[in-house]
Amino acid sequence: MKAVTTVSGTAYPWGAKNVDTDVIIPAHWLKTITRAGLGRGAFETVRAQPGNIFDDPAYAGAPILIAGDNFGCGSSREHAAWALADMGVRAVIAPSFSDIFSGNAVKNGIVPVVLPLAAVDRLLEAARDQPVTVDLETMTVTTPYQDRFAFALDPFRRRCLMEGLDEIGLTLARDAAITGYEAATAERRPWIAGRAYARASV
Amino acid sequence: MVARTLYEKIWDAHVVEGRDDGTCLVYIDRHLVHEVTSPQAFEGLRAAGRPVRRPDLTLAVPDHNLPTTPRVDAAGRELPIADRDSAAQLDTLRRNVRAFGVPYIDALAPEQGIVHVVGPELGFTLPGTTLVCGDSHTSAHGALGALAFGIGTSEVEHVLATQTLLLQPSRTMEVRVDGALGHGVSAKDVVLSIIGRIGASGGTGHVIEFTGEVIRSLSVEGRLTVANMSIEAGARAGLVAPDETTFAYLKGRPMAPTGAEWDEAVAWWRTLPSDAGARYDRTVTLHASDIAPALTWGTSPEDVVPITGTVPEPDSFADPAKQAAARKSLDYMGLAPGTRMQDVPVQHVFIGSCTNSRIEDLRAAAAVATGRHVADGVRALVVPGSGLVKRQAEAEGLHRIFTEAGFEWREPGCSMCLAMNPDKVPPGERCASTSNRNFVGRQGPGARTHLLSPAMAAAAAVTGRLADVRELMG
Ligand code: SF4
């Protein structure tokens, strides 16, 4: 994963509430077996409407998306994060995110920025004609209008984003602890070990 | 000892180690895999040369892409799948499980079904376990007292490689439902009413524990319906404390423990329910007498009304954002404020999905369909959740009730729940559906979905409109 410290540029001032992952990437795009190329399907149903924000040349290629409450709710599909990344989005600002989506976002180098509703409303206004900057170093969102909003992110996620860490590699380095846990569990809860299901086979 | 909740007990038992930043490495006991969210995870393992750490704790089953039409011809040969992308995804799963040695239930196996129906019915899902799947409705398995939640594909890869996840503890929320359910009111009405009450993001950041007399009185099937939709309230997971109902359900299931291990397991499971005096970060209480057969009117699962109600006036909502959302929803749904829900005609009925496709659901729908016929102009599908449910239903003669009443009796799978296979609702048409999401385009582009219980869906099928099932019951 590529490290990210700041995301700066135009922002889609969208503001829509309860944007579900079916809206971000409709189910028929999930038949792919790779991560690439999903930007083409991003917000397909929104883009089918004339005058939609994603086809407005003023925001073409914007690296930031500003949305309403509960962004990324619904299905766990990481395709939503892949689609956003593929269309060039590196940060999403909203009053709240679904838990699964914000996890998926971080794993794909997209910063989920939670700000209070009033700050999001202000940014929606400012972003119409000014760029927005999300800075993980200072943990702030700023605009040339001198807006400055602090946000929080759990320290591990922040580090993953800023250092572009390979989480699996990090965990594999803890192999001794995992093996120790497995040995203790085999004693305490022996029924956990998989009961191979006779019929489960290729 | 400090009093702990069910969630805290399961969490504590699974922490491999804590980290300074508050993140914990948490062990995963059970991992379900399906064809849609796993290809890129296996690809990642392959690229890094990593094996699957614990194939014995993993179970793969295809469900989303499978057509629900017959899968073999008269001679028993497998029929090809017309959609090339679907076929490729199913083939990829077959190839991956073979290459990585993962236990697998093939599309043609009698046990094939929706992953969230298969796990509990095989006894793969057990109380007190941590269980994950690359699918948000994994929350369903919490019905058996498992800490179960959906994960993204990167996390699927993480679990395959390490059998752990890096997690932050969640906040806890108790949703208590007191009293006894009225005639014609089911588990689906309970969970729709809960979501209507707390909202589609009401549970965000929380693990919900469902408690109270109503939850205790539900069968495991009913609890699965409730826990399944915890995610529609934004919750990370939903839990029901294991009890005698749970143990009776699990005993003798093919993958459940046996003999002395069973006794040992039950003894541990009995220690799991929340201690008296354990504290939740939030508690919400509902009373059964306030729960009527319910359904959705809009495009968010929080848009719930009783069947006796009317389409709401957008201005009646306090929040301006909700007013705007309601206006958009009604426009999409083709509904005018003030319309009686019971006057809304439907063209499609879908009885199925991981929320409501188990044997009890089919029995409830069949009871309403008995001696009646699907209304003119309505297409009604019954899609059992698994091959085992299908065989059980056929043994009870339910398929005959359905087909004589004009319902289509299908092969198991996700089907019209998300329209990844050929079962779709055409644009602008309306579907009474027992599934869990009424999102824009969920059942096909332009499709209009009303979420409701299996009995209510059957009532809609035979009357041709959204109907109060109580009026059709003896
Ligand atoms: S039935 Fe629907 S909600 Fe359940 S796993 Fe399948 S697609 Fe997802």
Describe this structure in words.
The complex is a heterodimer of chains A (202) and B (474). By secondary structure, chain A is of the alpha/beta class. In chain A, strands 1-6-7-8 form a 4-stranded antiparallel β-sheet. The longest helix of chain A has 14 residues. Chain A is globular. The model of chain A has no long low-confidence stretch (mean pLDDT 93). Chain B is of the alpha/beta class and 474 residues long. In chain B, 31% of the residues lie in helices and 16% in strands. In chain B, the strands form 5 sheets. In chain B, strands 16-15-14-17-18 form a 5-stranded parallel β-sheet. Chain B has a 4-stranded parallel β-sheet with strand order 4-3-5-6, covered by helices on one side. Classes of the chains: A alpha/beta (202), B alpha/beta (474). The structure holds iron/sulfur cluster (SF4). Iron/sulfur cluster binds next to loops of chain B.
Q: Based on DSSP secondary structure assignment, what is the total number of beta strands of chain A? A: 8
- Approximate helicity band of chain A: 25-40%
Helix-strand sequence of chain A: EEHHEHEHEHEEEHHH
As a whole number of angstroms, the C-alpha radius of gyration of chain B is 22 Å
How would you write the strand order of the largest sheet of chain A? 1-6-7-8
- Rg of chain A, alpha carbons: 20 Å
Helicity of chain B, in percent?
25-40%
| Count, helices of chain B | 15
Largest interface: A-B, 64 and 94 residues
Structural class of chain A: alpha/beta
Largest beta sheet of chain A, briefly? 4 strands, antiparallel
Features:
heterodimer, A: 202 residues, alpha/beta, four-stranded parallel sheet, globular, B: 474 residues, 15 helices, binds iron/sulfur cluster
Short description:
Chain A is 32% helix and 14% strand. Chain A is an alpha/beta fold and 202 residues long.
How does the SSE layout of this entry go?
The complex is a heterodimer of chains A (202) and B (474).
Chain A: E1 6-9, E2 11-13, H1 21-24, H2 44-47, E3 64-66, H3 79-86, E4 91-94, H4 99-107, E5 111-114, H5 117-126, E6 132-135, E7 140-142, E8 148-150, H6 155-163, H7 167-172, H8 175-188
Parallel strand pairs in A: 2-3, 3-4, 4-5
Antiparallel strand pairs in A: 1-6, 6-7, 7-8
Chain B: H1 6-14, E1 15-18, E2 24-27, E3 30-33, H2 39-48, E4 58-60, H3 84-100, H4 115-122, E5 130-133, E6 147-150, H5 153-162, E7 164-167, E8 171-178, H6 187-198, E9 206-211, H7 213-217, H8 220-228, E10 237-239, H9 244-250, H10 259-269, E11 282-287, E12 294-296, E13 304-306, H11 320-333, E14 348-351, H12 359-369, E15 379-382, H13 387-395, H14 398-404, E16 408-409, E17 430-433, E18 448-451, H15 454-463
Parallel strand pairs in B: 3-4, 3-5, 5-6, 8-9, 8-11, 9-10, 14-15, 14-17, 15-16, 17-18
Antiparallel strand pairs in B: 1-2, 2-7, 12-13
Helix pairs in contact in B: 2-5, 6-8, 12-14, 12-15
The structure holds iron/sulfur cluster.
Residues 63-64, 114, 116, 135, 137, 353-354, 414, 417-418, 435-436 of chain B line the site of iron/sulfur cluster (SF4).
